[in-house]
Write a structure and sequence with these properties.
The chain has about 260 residues and is of the alpha+beta class. It is built from 5 helices and 11 strands. The strands form 3 sheets. A 7-stranded antiparallel sheet has the order 1-2-3-6-9-10-11. Strands 4-5 form a two-stranded antiparallel sheet. The chain starts with about 30 loop residues before the first helix and ends in an 8-residue tail after the last helix.
Length: about 260
C-alpha cells in the first residue's frame, strides 16, 4: 500500500540540480533523442504505474483505466525548430472530448458536472498552439484531471514560468502528473470506476540544453506560497509517487538528476 503523502517543502536555495555530465555528447544520443518515436522525450519518460502509454502527436500519457485518468503526461519543446515554437492557433470551438480509441474507458463531462473541480490540462493547450492538431489533442479527456477551482491561478503562474524558461533554455522536456495515494476522495457523479480527486500535482521541468532539472509539488487547492516554495528534489518526488523519473538514462547521470536540493527539516 502506498504511504500517505507528507509534504516537505524545500527551501529554494538551489533552483536547478547541480552541473551534470554532458550526456548529449554520448554516442547514439542524437538518434535516440530526436529521431525516435517519442519526439525527443523518450529518454525522460518516467515509469508507469498502470502500464498503458498512449502517444499523441506531440505528447504522451500514462493512462490508468482504474481511475479514468492519466497519471502523467510528458512533452518536448525545442524552440530552435518550427514545431517547437509557441504559436497563436485559436482554441475557439474546442472542448474536451473522449478519446474514441479508448471505448469509454477515459473520463468525460459527467465527472465534472456541478462540482468545484475544473477540467485541468496536464499538457497546457497554449504550449501546443503552434499546430491545430496538436492543440486539439490537448482537449482529450486523457489530458484532463479534476483541478480545484482555486488552484487555477497558481497553476497558470507555474505554466507561465515554465514557458519563460523554455524560451530561455531552448530544448526542454516537461512532465506533469498527480500523486496516486491510498486515501483519495472520489467524484461520484459518473459510472464506475469512480474518478479520484488528486490531492497533489507535480511538474518536472528538464532543461536538456544545460543538463539540469527542477520539480514542483503543489496541493490541489489555492496556492498560498511563492512558486519556489513548492520546489522539491527529484529524489523526494520519486519517494511520494513511487515512480522512477530518469530510469532510462545511464545510472550515473540518473543519480545526478536526483541530487537532493535542500534540507527536509
Amino acid at each position: 500500500m502506498r504511504k500517505l503523502l507528507i509534504l516537505f517543502l524545500f527551501p529554494p536555495l538551489l533552483v536547478f540540480t547541480q552541473e551534470l555530465k554532458d550526456f548529449t555528447k554520448d554516442t547514439g544520443y542524437e538518434t535516440a533523442m530526436y529521431n525516435g518515436d517519442f519526439q525527443g522525450y523518450e529518454m525522460f519518460m518516467p515509469t508507469s504505474t498502470c502500464g498503458e502509454i498512449i502517444k499523441y502527436n506531440n505528447y504522451s500519457v500514462s493512462f490508468c483505466e482504474e481511475y479514468r485518468l492519466s497519471e502523467w503526461a510528458i512533452y518536448y519543446k525545442d524552440i530552435h525548430s518550427d514545431a517547437g515554437q509557441f504559436g497563436e492557433v485559436s482554441r475557439r470551438g474546442l472542448n474536451f472530448i473522449r478519446d474514441s480509441m479508448l471505448n469509454g474507458r477515459d473520463g468525460g463531462n459527467v465527472w465534472y458536472y456541478k462540482n468545484i473541480y475544473d477540467k485541468g490540462h496536464l499538457v497546457p493547450a497554449s504550449d501546443m498552439s503552434n499546430d491545430y492538431q496538436s492543440l486539439k489533442e490537448t482537449f482529450l479527456f486523457t489530458n484532463c484531471t479534476p483541478q480545484h477551482e482555486s488552484i487555477r491561478v497558481g497553476m497558470r503562474q507555474l505554466e507561465s514560468k515554465i514557458r519563460e524558461w523554455t524560451e530561455k533554455f531552448g530544448t526542454v522536456a516537461i512532465i506533469t502528473g498527480w500523486v496516486i495515494e491510498d486515501d483519495l476522495d472520489y467524484i461520484y457523479t459518473g459510472p464506475p470506476p469512480l474518478m479520484p480527486i488528486p490531492k497533489y500535482y507535480y511538474k518536472v521541468f528538464v532543461d536538456i540544453s544545460n543538463n539540469r532539472s527542477i520539480a514542483f509539488l503543489i496541493p490541489n487547492k489555492k496556492i498560498t506560497k511563492t512558486l519556489m516554495e513548492y520546489v522539491v528534489s527529484i529524489d523526494y518526488l520519486e519517494s511520494v509517487t513511487g515512480l522512477d523519473f530518469f530510469y532510462k538514462l545511464p545510472k550515473d547521470i540518473e543519480r545526478s538528476f536526483e541530487i537532493d536540493t535542500g534540507d527536509k527539516n
